[in-house]
Write a structure and sequence with these properties.
This protein is mainly beta. Helices cover 0% and strands 54% of the residues. The protein contains no helices and eleven strands.
């Protein structure tokens, strides 16, 4: 299984971040898997943002829930992250990953994509 994420890497404050992750090798509807978005700001640790399950159910970090939306396109085997009203604090390397069996049990992940927020 391989995951590859992409999206616009340079945003201005208040814009909406949109990233897509393509999954190769397994349908994203296969059970029991969860597809998560994680980020790592410069010099800081990993932060789990949210996930979409094989069933289509979504889960969000409480601290980001009001600004985050995760969706999927099963026909393309892709899932998407949208983060609204970005600020410079949202600058980070963003990763997608697949968790097997339960959230947090990471199996495969993408290489990440860098996002910068600057006016």
């Amino acid at each position: 299984v391989q995951l590859q994420e992409w999206g616009h890497g340079l945003l201005k404050p208040s814009q909406t971040l949109s990233l897509t992750c393509a999954v190769y090798g397994d349908p994203i509807t296969a059970s029991v898997y969860y597809y998560s978005w994680i980020r790592q700001p410069p010099g800081k640790g990993l932060e789990w943002m949210g996930a979409i399950a094989y069933s289509g159910n979504t889960y969000y970090s409480p601290s980001l829930k009001s600004r985050t939306s995760i969706s999927r396109d099963t026909s393309k085997n892709q899932f998407t992250l949208q983060l609204s009203a970005v600020t410079p604090e949202d600058a980070a390397r963003y990763y997608c990953e697949r968790d097997g069996g339960r959230l947090g049990r990471a199996e495969y992940g993408g290489q990440g994509t860098q996002v910068t927020v600057s006016s």
